[in-house]
Amino acid sequence: MPNPLSEPLPPRSATPAASSPAAQVVALTKTFGDGDSAVHALRGVDLAIQRARITAVMGQSGSGKSTLLQTMAGLEPPTSGRVLLGDQEITGMNDETLTRLRRTRMGFVFQSFNLLPALDALENIRLPFLLAGTGVSADTEAWIEILLTRLGLADRAHHRPQQLSGGQQQRVAIARALVTRPDVLFADEPTGSLDSASSRDVLELLRAASGEWGQTIVLVTHDPVAASAADRVVRMSDGVIVDDWAGGSAESIAERMLEAGAR
Amino acid sequence: MRSWALRQLKESAGQYAASAAVVAIVSAFAVLLLETTEVFSAAVASAGLDAVDAVRMGLGTVTVVFLGIAVVVAVLVISNTFSMVYAGRVRDIALLRLIGATGKQVRRTSLIDGVAVGLTGAVLGIVAGVLISLAAIAGISASTGAELSFIFVPQLILVPLIGSLVATVAASYAGSREVSRVAPIEATRSSAEGQRLPERAARGRSITGVVLFMAGLGLLGLGTVVGIAAPVGLLIAFPGGVLSIAGVIIGSPVLIPPVVALVARLLPRSAANRLAAANLLHDPVRTARTVISVVIGVTLLTMFTVAGEMFIAATRDYLGQGDDVASVIDGLLQAVYALTSFSVIVAAIGLGSTLSMSVLQRRRQIGVLRALGLTTRQTRRMLLAESLLVTVVGVIVGLVLGTLYGFVGANSILGSQYFGPPLLPPVFLIVLVVGALAFGALASLAPGRRASGIAPAVALREA
User: Fold this and answer.
1) Which of A96, A119, A217, B49 could form a disulfide with A54 if both were Cys (CB 3.0 to 4.6 A apart)?
2) CATH number of the domain bearing residue A185
3) Interface touch A118/B372, C-beta < 8 Å
4) Do residue B162 and residue B206 come from a single domain?
């Protein structure tokens, strides 16, 4: 594939005030079930996601990191606390409004790619516009061209997901998440199903999107290599944030996680 | 191996409910037809008429033709269910293959499912058929004063029982063929994909289908021409009809999808319509089976209506007035509609259950769509569009075939005296289209509700 960084990304059309957070949760709790069988997945989380940065949320299985992502993205209602996208409160919104919000202002990248097998790569990328029922503007058409080229998918546009490798599928998924220029891109273990070379591609793309294009990204992962792409690393344990630092190399992150685990 | 199969059977019981219902309906239909033959023959005999053999022959033919048609529709519907249930088990089957089960062993477990569905449906259907017969006989006796009574013959049980078992075992075998070829390596891969015909099989099918269809058309044409000379054209045209419909059924996975694509292009380009078309085209085998189950019913209704109208027109033209003939033919048409309604009901149940099961299989995909911004209303519309696309394509193909068969059938018999154009009464057309659309909309209600209830978080949870 061509080097994804060989061409400059276009500047983001509208850059909101860099100071206010792109997304925010305040005193967030989430409890599944009740009584003796209640599981407290989140026990009071405060987190502000900075614009144009990659924030990695780390932690072991059951630490609450996936629940945090689902709640921030409005996929799960919180038990208490507030969730904001920009300065808009999304807690308590009805399903219809939330769905439209996800469609226009959020992007998703999943561990298992989740492309629609019935659509080809280009149709998958255009899916958000299909769902919105809006046509694809000439401006967006040009943006899709750039994404396809930059993600090394130009000659794969009309392939079905089944005809693509895992790494290619995930690049299509990233293009699908970037195509609407969302306020926040939520990535759930995006390298979890990939080999190390494809993982590196995906991480480079996410870095390029944030660094050059100002894309805000929330990256949930347990992999120190993936987290090393982040500008900030937040570690969760038992439903609370227990560590929050500027990240660093995969080795340093792994070391810090190990030390924390040993304590 | 057997305990695994039995456990799987228990888990899939809910999904088999519609198939068992279909078998029950067809079995009850068989009991009713057979009992009618017996009771009528007995009544004719007791009246001292010597037409018993003719009555038996006539009713026997009706039984064979209409029961046969209902069985074909049922097999199509049931094999869809089986192939979908088995597709859901692909990973388990691959795991079994991985630890040493042979393809043959896997296929054998599918027999258990086939026998279970066939037996359940047959028993329910026979009981229902006998009860309905008893009620009908009592009702007719009471209202007409005729001395009719229920006559038991072993066929009442044997025909539906054996027929059901043969049909369900055949359907389960057809459904399991793909899955038993699952390579052990699939255990390590992710979810099952749509059933795509391998390139060579697809070409083979389309060639066979087209050849049969063309041969059938040739005979239909010949029958019409012969019919102009002498009223024996039907003897040539009838096998032509059978051949051509067999060609359509065999070639359907290749021939039907392009029609679906064409009709889909005429719909407004909304997300729901576009996704519905893509879903249908992604699994041509399943889509073709569902469409064909609709096609058969519509073809029958149209064929008899067109032929009936042409008979009426011919007698009016030829005899100057034919009101008596018209009322007789109208009566016959009503009987035909009633007989065909069984296969129509089976097709409707099949459509609903196929959609429901496809929702079950696409939980994750639908969750992804919801996460990416498909609203609950769009989700329901997507299912509605899938259902209506199947129905509309079924109606179009059925109307074309039915009109052709009706036209050829009527002219191959009447052509020597009166050669007329096909007649399709507007009222029939309106009732058919409205009825089919209503059926399609109804069939999509439950699956649509189920699909719109899928939480978008499913996309993240089920890794």
Assistant:
1) A217
2) 3.40.50.300
3) no
4) no
Question: Are B338 and B291 found together in one domain?
Answer: yes
- Domain annotation covers residue A135: yes
Q: How many domains does chain B have?
A: 2
Q: Has residue A173 been placed in a domain?
A: yes
Q: Does A158 touch chain B (CB under 8 A)?
A: no
| pLDDT tens per residue, range A111-137 | 989 999 999 999 999 999 999 988 888
* Residue A39 touches partner B, C-beta closer than 8 Å: no
With helix as H, strand as E and coil as C, how does chain B read?
Answer: CHHHHHHHHHHCHHHHHHHHHHHHHHHHHHHHHHHHHHHHHHHHHHCCCCCHHHHHHHHHHHHHHHHHHHHHHHHHHHHHHHHHHHHHCHHHHHHHHHCCCCHHHHHHHHHHHHHHHHHHHHHHHHHHHHHHHHHHHHHHHHHHCCCCCCCCCCHHHHHHHHHHHHHHHHHHHHHHHHHHCCCHHHHHCCCCCCCCCCHHHHHHHHHHHHHHHHHHHHHHHHHHHHHHHCCCHHHHHHHHHHHHHHHHHHHHHHHHHHHHHHHHHHCCCCHHHHHHHHHHHHCHHHHHHHHHHHHHHHHHHHHHHHHHHHHHHHHHHHHCCCHHHHHHHHHHHHHHHHHHHHHHHHHHHHHHHHHHHHHHHCHHHHHHHHHHCCCHHHHHHHHHHHHHHHHHHHHHHHHHHHHHHHHHHHHHHHCCCCCCCCCCCHHHHHHHHHHHHHHHHHHHHHHHHHHHCCCCCHHHHCC
More confidently predicted of A242 and B3? A242
Binary contact (A128, B372; C-beta < 8 A): yes
Tell if the CB–CB gap between B372 and A127 is shorter than 8 Å: yes
B373 with A118: Cβ contact below 8 A:
no
Contacts of B194 in chain A (CB under 8 A): 117-118
Q: Per residue in B129-140, pLDDT tens?
A: 999 999 999 998
Same domain, B207 and B350: yes
User: Domain range holding A221?
Assistant: 23-262
Number of domains making up chain A: 1
Which residues of B, range 240-279, sit inside 8 Å of A by Cβ? 270-271, 274-275, 278-279
Mean pLDDT over the full length of chain B: 86
Of B279, B281, B371, Cβ closest to residue A75 = B371
Q: Look up the domain containing B178 and give its range.
A: 1-183
Q: Report the residue of chain A nearest B281, measured CA to CA.
A: A118
